[in-house]
Amino acid sequence: MNPTTTNGVCILGHGITYSRSPMIHNYWIKKYGVDSRYGICDMPAEDLPDFLDAIRQGKSAGCNVTTPYKQAVIPFLDAIDDTASAIGSVNTIYRRDGQLRGTSTDGAGYVGHLKNIHPDLQLKGAEVLILGAGGAARAIADALLQSGCSVIYIANRTLQKAREIAAFQPDTIKPVAWDDVQSTAGLVDVLVNTTSLGMVGRQPLVFPLDGTRPGCVVSDIVYAPLETELLAQARRLGRPVLDGLGMLLHQAVPGFQLWFGIEPQVTGELRALIEQDLKSHG
Ligand code: NAP
Q1: Which of 67, 169, 211, 269 has a CA 20 to 30 Å removed from the CA of 277?
Q2: What phi and psi, each to the nearest 5 degrees, are found at residue 212?
Q3: Which of 154, 195, 221, 275 to mutate to test the pocket of ligand 1 (most atoms within 8 A of CB)?
Q4: Which residues pair with 127 in a beta bridge?
Q5: 175, 163 contact by CB (below 8 A)
Q6: Would you place residue 3 in the very low, low, confident or very high pLDDT band (cuts 50, 70, 90)?
Q7: What is the pLDDT, as a whole number, of residue 75?
Q8: What is the pTM assigned to this prediction?
Q9: Is 273 helix (H, G, I), strand (E, B) or coil?
Q10: What are the residues facing 185 on neighbouring strands?
C-alpha cells in the first residue's frame, strides 16, 4: 500500500512475513464504516523519509511500525509521547496539528488485556516477574509501573540487558540472573514471558511453575501457538492465565482511535477470527 495514493493505513516494516494487524484493523474499518483500508508496507530503510513525509502531508492517517523500524523511525518524527520516550520505541504513528507523532501501545495493550481478563487483580502494589528484556519487556514494565506495581523483576538470558532496563528506575525495577529466577517466581503476583521462547519454530520455554503462589497470574505474550507450554503448565497447576492474543488485539485499539477518532471494541467475534487464522497459519 502506498500512502501517496490512498487514504490507507498500514503496518510499516521490512521482511514482514505475516502480520495479523491487517485482519484486525480491516475488521474494525468494515464494522465502523470507515473509508480506509489497512495494508502492509514492506520497504528498505532508505525509503523511510519519503514514506513518513507523505503521512505528514496528510496522504494517510498514519501507520503501525514493526521490526526493524521501531527505533529507526524516531528521528523522522516531530514528537514522541512520554511512553515512547521512556521505552525508546514507537509502534504507532499518527498526525496531529500538521505534526507527525509517535507512541507505543504494546504496554497498554498488555495491561488492558490483563485488567479485562482479571478485573479483581490489584495492580497497585503488585510484584511482577518479567522473563526477557527485549522491546516488549520494556513496554510492559513501563505500563505496569504506570499502573502502580511496586516491584518489577526482570530476568534475562543476557543479564546486562535486564540491568540496562533497571538503570532507568533502580528503586522499582530489579534485574535477576536467570539462575536465580526460580526463587523470585515464588514472590510475585504476575509472571509474564516476553522472550520469544515457546513460539512456533522456536525452542520451548522450560520454566517450572511449582514454586509460584496459587493466585499468581501466569501470562505469555507469545500468541502462536495460542496455548504455549507455559500456559498449559499453569492451567494444570490451577493458576490463573493470560494469553498473548489479547495483548495483540488490545494494543491495536489506541492506533485505530488516533487515526479515525473511534474507540474500537475487542469483541469475541474479532478474537475468534484471529484464532481461526492462527489455527490455519500457525
Ligand atoms: P526482542 O526485543 O528480540 O527480545 C527477545 C527476548 O527473548 C530477549 O530477552 C532474548 O534474550 C530472549 N530470547 C531469545 N532467544 C532466547 C533463548 N534461546 N533463551 C533465552 N532467552 C531468549 O523481541 P520482543 O519484541 O521483545 O518480542 C518478544 C516476543 O514477544 C516475540 O515472541 C514477539 O512475537 C512477542 N510479542 C508479542 C506481542 C503481542 O501483542 N502479543 C507484542 C510484541 C511482541 P537475550 O537478550 O538474551 O537475547
Answers
A1: 67
A2: -75, 155
A3: 195
A4: 151
A5: yes
A6: very low
A7: 97
A8: 0.94
A9: helix
A10: none
Which atom of ligand 1 has the smallest separation from the CA of 139? 26
C-alpha count within 13 angstroms, C-beta hemisphere, residue 218: 25
Residue 3, all three cell numbers: 500512502
Q: Is 70 a catalytic residue?
A: yes
| DSSP E strand stretches across 43-109 | 62-65, 79-80, 92-96, 99-103
Residues in the chain: 282
The pLDDT tens digits for 248-270 are: 999 999 999 999 999 999 999 99
Provide residues with CB under 6 Å of ligand 1.
106, 109, 132-137, 156-158, 161, 194-197, 199, 203, 221-223, 244, 247-248, 251
Residue linked to cell 475468534: 272
Positive or negative: CA dihedral 267, 273, 274, 279? positive
Question: Residue 29 has which C-alpha cell?
Answer: 474499518
Beta strands in the chain (DSSP E): 9-13, 38-42, 62-65, 79-80, 92-96, 99-103, 127-131, 151-156, 173-177, 190-193, 217-220, 241-242
pLDDT band at 17 (very low <50, low <70, confident <90, very high): confident
Q: For 121-147, what is each residue's pLDDT tens digit? A: 999 999 999 999 999 999 999 999 999
Domains of the chain (ranges, CATH numbers): 9-104+246-281 (3.40.50.10860), 107-242 (3.40.50.720)
Q: Round to whole Å and give the CA distance between 64 and 157.
A: 29
